[in-house]
Every structure is written in structure tokens, then in C-alpha cells.
Amino acid sequence: MPRYAKVTKTIVNQLGTIVGTENVIWGQAIPEQYAYDAGTRKEGLSYPEVLVFPGNRQDVAEILKIANNLLIPVTPRGGGTGLAGGAVPLNGGIVLDLRRMNRIVHIDPAARYMVVEPAVRTMDIQQVAHQHGLLYAGDPCSSDECVIAGNIATNAGGNKAIKYGVTGDQVYELEVVTPQGEIVTLGGRLKKNSTGYGLVRLIAGSEGTLGIITQVTIKLQKLAPLLPNFLAVFPNLAAAISLVGDLLADTVIDPISIELIDRQTVLDLERYQQQKIFVDAIGDCLIIQLEAYTQAEVQKKWIKLQEICHIRGCLAVAEIEGEKIWPARRAWGKAIEVDHPVGVSEDIVVPVDQIEAFVSQLKTLTRAFQFQFRIAGHAGDGNMHIRIIPGEVSALEWPNEVNKFREKLYSATYDLGGRLSGEHGIGLKRKAILRGIIDPVELALMQAIKKAFDPNHILNPGKIFDMMSPATNNADTVILP
Amino acid sequence: MPRYAKVTKTIVNQLGTIVGTENVIWGQAIPEQYAYDAGTRKEGLSYPEVLVFPGNRQDVAEILKIANNLLIPVTPRGGGTGLAGGAVPLNGGIVLDLRRMNRIVHIDPAARYMVVEPAVRTMDIQQVAHQHGLLYAGDPCSSDECVIAGNIATNAGGNKAIKYGVTGDQVYELEVVTPQGEIVTLGGRLKKNSTGYGLVRLIAGSEGTLGIITQVTIKLQKLAPLLPNFLAVFPNLAAAISLVGDLLADTVIDPISIELIDRQTVLDLERYQQQKIFVDAIGDCLIIQLEAYTQAEVQKKWIKLQEICHIRGCLAVAEIEGEKIWPARRAWGKAIEVDHPVGVSEDIVVPVDQIEAFVSQLKTLTRAFQFQFRIAGHAGDGNMHIRIIPGEVSALEWPNEVNKFREKLYSATYDLGGRLSGEHGIGLKRKAILRGIIDPVELALMQAIKKAFDPNHILNPGKIFDMMSPATNNADTVILP
């Protein structure tokens, strides 16, 4: 493994020749925001040496050829909304900010697909699809800021995964630039394909470590004209969770979203948004979104929903008019952080039938450590976003205690068949944890793939895993705490 | 790249120690069926040196350790129903027949999943799921003979892909033995997972070249109580195909299968099955299967189906009672071969909105070459099973002419955004074609992954692609025509 080269004035000039000097920022002029992402600001800054804004696939290819020849690390960056440090340039080098590549290239409503450049904002894709009477089903909570290539890089989930799957399921075709600067199109606009290895699904979720996405062909779905939202309030989390399995098994209701929000988070959110969002009854809540083509269908589903809610001891269930519930849902992370700036956030995923067991373990553990927790999970797919906050524990004890706590929490998660990340990715933040808990054979397979794609290890090094033992003084070990 | 070692008596004894001597067959005693699969018998025989029947994952692991140390090729075999030569031991060596590993390990109807060993027959999985009121959605036409690990290895599609996706979409978790003999569990029983690379989807469709599947956790779906089948007869293929887009866009009908069968194949099938299967009107047909929970829902869908059929100039549309249409659909390949033993079969997939353009090109080309064709495609997902038959062309001219024809057909397919294989895989039969048509960068990525997993190239060598230039005298170039 070579050490990386430094970015010199000569290299900066070369980059300027490719993209235009106005699209290169070097050294001290680089804005601070490029030294962190939405999940790592508090954990330290790691600046790139040079920031480049490529305008097209050829720009990306030429930049990567230079970087690969000279051994300069390259970190791709989309919306900067990642929560695991995936876009943080751990080893300096080049940050490729893809924001200029933000065109919607083509939409075919009849064949239900859209071709977009990597930095199209996810909400814009959703809105353009809507304008054509169609649904783009990828729906991460950061949709107003994140971009499609970032969603693919983390295989983002979001609010509609229970019916439509995750971002990887929405992708027909990817144009990717390899670390060697070759432009290749993977996959196809096909419902099935057994023509060699399925490389699209390997790139999805690889967090920018295998190639730079320069164009995407995404699937669009039929859009139901009615998407009513309901709120069901329960006296405790266990009762709320018990409804999830019922909802998923029911053949009438067929929900597209089931979101769990605990009682305290409801109050935090309303305070943060400075408005009444939820219903008068206070408790642990499920937000349930349904699809329907007629009002009669909504009515039928609503009757069935009330039935099963009441069997599970629901305190209140009501339709929430309009769309105000979703901005509130999306703001959850921010609302909690305002009230609890000290804390750690998790993205754990467990089998849906193990959510109750997971929350039970979470309660036991937080009680034992005298912590508190907040929960706002994609309950329909088992993805539990939780924030652990110090509660009674002093600032002095917190860092050490929370590490001990997390070790126990992850161990419990794996015992239930869960994993560290449902949709945010491993990035920088969770790689040390992953190394401790993953089957070494699985890790070795991932590392072998990385080496096969990127033998010089220039592309987003130090993400998901390191390529060498952390004991050696290599260039890509963790630098953030 | 080393040449492979020969299987000696000593090695056979070692294998016997692992699996029991009764589970090893050596040399001349190996039945002929192991020298071909369902798609390659006519194209030549290629025997293994030794045939081994492992009983469990440890057996597989120990066998692979020996093979990897001694450089003996290993070809896994499931039901032997593959159509691309994937299970043919091109370089001799060991065939691992997994038939002893055929237990259903566990079914959890509430959580809707099943854990099975690799050689459980697909139809048995379907039936056990049915007995628990659930659906296993993988449904290849060979379901009465093929096994689940083979379905995963080719990422088999089948009759329900339009609603439920292909086999890879049905898999939660895979236990795999690596070429080095390590046992690893990939994936998880999770609706989403961003914890490192998505290796399950890489193994699916890799045709036994990256690892041996020893256990599978598959998803089960809610089973609709009513699954009515309809037949719509059209005056020509174009009219039949024009209905496909309507059916997929319709929000009431929501079909689970749309199968296209041409007029001549209908007659061939009825002659082969020696019974009236279709309706009295003769023409190019669509078989349409729907799901419903009530008779009222069936009625509503049926009314809508008739409406859109008649707009498209349908000659007749009728419900086909019971399940007799599906055994007929599954027998298509055999029925055609009885009447037309000389011919070539294709597994081309195109975007669904390009089926009409594809069939139009197919007609033009067959006319130009004076060939005929039969078609029975999974029209709902663009996967066109066609058989090209000599028609007026003499036996002498046929081999040369059909090669010229195929080159033009594949070129037209790729121009439409299609690919060589929708569900059968590349195996041995299509690798030379693939090499000529694939983007070399994509091929190089696949080869790099293969090398990363299997540096000694012992696992199913010579499938999908070769690892060296065909000009060199390497051990794994094409031996079949």
C-alpha cells in the first residue's frame, strides 16, 4: 500500500485545465463545510487539499486518471447530508463535489423511468415524478437536501421501503467512473438480467469506495391519487410496536409507511416546530401512510385500521390532514439535537418481528447505564433511529460509559439478527465498530472486492473498513474519535 | 494461472473420508447425465473426474479446502436443469452434487420466511409455503425439477417477476462456502441493510463462480386466496404485445403474470399435451394471472381486463379454469423441441416498452434468413424466450447461417437496451457471445471480482467468462461449439 501523494500547485493547474480554474478551490480557500458531513461536524475537521467541481463524466474520468497515476485520494461528495462521514476526506487529497452535475436528463412517463445526473436533489426527483403523475419511491428523511448519487452510495432507505424497497431497488442502470478513470454503464433498463454479475447492486451501498456515479436511470412507480396519513397513539412503546406486524400482515390496509415515534419525541418535535402537529392524546405513536385510488378504498382501509388499532389498546387514531406530518418526521433528528446536543445517534436495523425484543433490550440497557433514549424508527422495516442521551450521567463519565453501552447494544442487536446500519452506512463513524463485530470472512471478501476495483486505494479510502491492519501506521486508519 | 491437477486415487480416498465412500463416484462409474445439463446435451459431453455428494456445510468446506490446495476445479450442481451449461464440469475435476442437502430447516409463517438447504426443489418450497397460507414468489418454469440454490445461482426469473421480482429479490440471507473453504453467512433477515457491501446480490446470479451456497433464508409473501388465470387471444403478435403496457399501467388489474405465446406454439403445445388447453379462437395469446382477495375483486378486475382487451382488438378473452394452463406453459420448451429438434433457444431480455420493436426486428431477421421462430416470453418483464428453427434452410447451411443470424439479433437486442440473458445465465453457452458484445470495462470488473474471490480459479471455471485471453492455451476456454 503506497502512501498518498500531496496535491501540488502543478496538480491543481492540471485539474484547472480539466474543469476550468473557476471550478477548483485550493488550500485555505476551501470552505469549512467540506471538512465534515451532517454526522461528523462535532467529531473533528478533516479538510481536502483541493476541492474540484467536475461538470461531466469526462471531467470525472480525467480527474480520476490523474489521481490514480499520482496516488491522490479522491472523496466524492453529494449533498453533504451523510451521517456516517462517508464524504469526509479522511486523507486530504481531492474532494469531488458533484453539484454541477444536477440535470434531469430525460423522463419517460409511459415507460416509467427517469435519467438523472448524480447531484439531482432527491426531492426534485420526487416532485418531477409527481408532475408526471408518477412516484419516485426513494424517500430518505433528508430528501430536501440529499442527492440521488448519495442515496445510492449509502443504499438509503427512507419512509417507503416497506412497500417499495430501498434506493438500490429503484435503480435500473448506473454510469460509473472506475478508479482508473474508465467510464462504464452497469445494469440496464430491465426487469430482470442474468447477463454476468449484478454490479449495480454492488455499487449501491458501497459508499463511494468502488466508483463515482455519474448518471443514474431510476424506476418510477404508479402514483396513487390518495396518500392519506394516520396517527395512532398508544399508552406504551410495546403496544405501538405490536401493531406493526398486524399492519404488515393485513391484506386490506397494505401500508406504504409505518413510522414509530416515542412520546417524548412527539413533545420535542412540537416544541421545535412551534405548532401542534399530532393529536391531543399523548403517547407513543405510529404514523401510518396508505395508498388508495378511490375514497371508498380509503374508507375501507380506515375502518380496518381502527379495528386493529383498538384490539392493540390504541388511545386514539385519527387521520392527519395534509402533509404536515412529514416535515415534522423529517425534522426529528434536528429537533432532538436541539434539546440534547450531547448524545449519540444510531441507525440499527433488526428483523421486523424483533423490534419489540430490541426495544426491550434498549430499555434495560439505558436503565442500567442511567441514560435516556429517544426513538423515531422506520418501524415497518425494522430500522430503528435512536438517540442515546446522558440522562443522569455526568459529562465526565459520558464518553467512556456510552462506549461501554454501545458495545452491549450492538451485541444485543447482532444476537437478534440485526446489523449496525439500516440506511446511513458505515462510513467513518462505524468502521471501528464494524471491525469488531463483523465475521472476518465477510470483511475479507469486502476488502478483496475493494482491492480488485481500486488496487491503489485512491477512492474514498478509510471508509467502511481499512485496507490494512490498524496496528500498522497506514494512511487510512481512523483519525476521528 | 496454474493448470489444474488431476484427481488421483489418493484424492478420491480423501473425499471418501469426508463424505463417506458411498457418496463418492469415480471415473467410469459416473452417470452420463453429469456430463451435460438441460441445455447442453446435444453440444457434447464433459465428464467430471469424480462426483461427490456432500451432506452438509462442513463437507463442502473440507472438499473446497482440498480442491483449493491441490488446484482441482469444482463445479456445483443442483437440479441439473440449467440451460446454459452452468453445471457442466468443463475442466473435469470434482462435481459437487448437492442433492443430499435438501431439508427445509425452518419455516416461520408469522415472520414470513423459510430457511432451506440448497437442494430443496423450488416447487416443494412453493407447496410448503402454500400449506402455511403463504406465497414463495420465485417461479421458474422448471420449478418441478430445479432447486433453490440453482435458482439463486442464475438469479432465475420465472412467471411472477413483474410483481415480485426475480430470485435474488426473494433472498434474505445466504450461507456460502468460499473457494478457500470458509463458511460465511451473508445478508440478514432484514428489509434494509447498509452495513458494508451487498454481497448477497453479488452471489445471486454469479453462477457458482464465487462460492457454494449451503443454506438460504428466503422471503415469503402474503398469499391471495384467488389467483385466476385469463387467456386473451389476438390476431397478431403486435396486438398482443400492445396490451402488455396497458396491463402494467392499469391500477385495477395489477397482474402477477403476463406470458406471451405465439399462435403456432399454442398448437404445438396442445399437440404435445394431447389436450385442449387454450380457447377455441386461435391466435397469438397472452396468459394473464391476477391476484384477488374476494370474488368481487376478481369481477372488478375481469371487467376492466375485458375493456382494455377489446380496445386492443382482442379476438377472445376468457378465464381458464383451474391450473392446467401453467403445466402447459412450463412444458413449452419441451413441446417445441419435440417438433423442432434442430434449432437454437434464446433468453433475451429487453425493456418492456421495447418488446414490440424487438419482435419486429426478429421477424425481419428471420424472414431475411428464411428461418422461422417460436416465442413464449415472460412479456410482463421483457424476457423473450424464443426458438429459432431452420424453416427452409438446409441442415448444411444452418450452423453457419444461424451464427450470422444470432450476431445480428444480439446486436439489435443491445441497440434496444436489451441483454443476452434474462434468467438462464451465461454459463458456457453464451460466454463467447458475451465476450464479443459486453463493454470490456464491465467484463474486466467481473473478472477482477472473480480473481478476488477465487485467485486459484477452482470454482466453476470457464463459466460466464474466461480468466485469460482465449488465444492462450489456457485450461478454461470453450470446449463446446
TrEMBL record, chains A, B:
Q: Which PANTHER family match?
A: GLYCOLATE OXIDASE SUBUNIT GLCD
Sequence ranges assigned to domain FAD-binding PCMH-type in this UniProt record: 44-223
Cofactor(s) essential for the protein: FAD
Query: If you read the UniProt record, what top EC class would you report for this enzyme, in one word?
Result: oxidoreductase
Keyword annotations for this protein, in alphabetical order, are: FAD, Flavoprotein, Oxidoreductase
Instruction: Provide the organism lineage as a comma list.
Output: Bacteria, Bacillati, Bacillota, Negativicutes, Selenomonadales
Question: In its UniProt entry, what is this protein called?
Answer: Putative FAD-linked oxidoreductase
GO MF, one example: FAD binding
E.C. number, please?
1.-.-.-
